[in-house]
Task: inverse folding
């Protein structure tokens, strides 16, 4: 199966209707529990180079996202995918559930992941798409989130230090009826200099976050990473473009 992102991604990423001005104290960003699951259409294109052999990736699927109140100030986040069509690819490398997989996380309202069922601390699922600051932000403000993530390569687990840098670009009405924060993301994960295996993982893009419903509406992210083991001349290089669109 082949498809072209340019033909299926609507013009919603290209323009917005009207820009809000945030209050003088800024906007508070946080996730909110949902009464029913939100459904997102995902489209992925890219390429993988493994030990000299290259292949193209084309994949589309739907992702269900539901946030429920848990104990205290925590939430239970459930994600599961359906209707996978296209290339075989380990989507957990991008923090997404694979076919027939149901991911359950305990998070707080800021998006910080406390626990993921069946997965040890440090798994890629522990780095959420958005992690918010605990204070109001205004257009142009930036904040950072640091975490430790482990990646698997050549039969070994490689620890990395990660940092995601977020910026609130503006608050606007998006797709006619969503009052959104447009948030820019630029992040990386890197292995230490003394590691036998080298990991260089990068991601950047933009997210439209619904301020009234406390959830993502749409996002577009670019991923690139390389994993190398010089001693055995092993290398993996991946480049991805990922689009996520909320069904109306």
Result:
């Amino acid at each position: 199966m082949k498809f072209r992102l340019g033909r299926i991604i609507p013009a919603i990423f290209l323009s917005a209707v009207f820009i809000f001005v945030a209050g003088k104290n800024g906007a508070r960003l946080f996730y909110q529990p949902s009464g029913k699951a939100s459904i997102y259409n995902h489209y992925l294109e890219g390429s993988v180079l493994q030990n000299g052999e290259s292949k193209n990736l084309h994949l589309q699927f739907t992702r269900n996202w539901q946030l429920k109140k848990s104990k205290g100030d925590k939430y239970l986040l459930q994600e599961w995918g359906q209707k996978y069509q296209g290339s075989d690819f380990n989507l957990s490398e991008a923090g997404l559930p694979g076919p027939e997989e149901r991911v359950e996380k305990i998070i707080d309202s800021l998006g910080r992941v406390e626990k993921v069922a069946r997965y040890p601390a440090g798994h890629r699922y522990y780095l959420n798409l958005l992690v918010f600051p605990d204070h109001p932000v205004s257009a142009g403000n930036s904040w950072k989130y640091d975490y430790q993530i482990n990646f698997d390569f050549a039969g070994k687990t490689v620890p990395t230090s990660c940092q995601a840098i977020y910026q609130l670009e503006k608050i606007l009405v998006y797709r006619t009826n969503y009052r959104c924060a447009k948030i820019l993301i630029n992040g990386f994960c890197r292995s230490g200099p003394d590691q036998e295996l080298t990991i260089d993982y990068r991601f950047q893009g933009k997210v439209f976050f619904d301020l009234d419903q406390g959830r993502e509406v749409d996002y577009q992210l670019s991923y690139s990473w390389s994993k190398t083991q010089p001693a055995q001349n092993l290398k993996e290089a991946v480049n991805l473009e990922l689009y996520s669109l909320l069904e109306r």
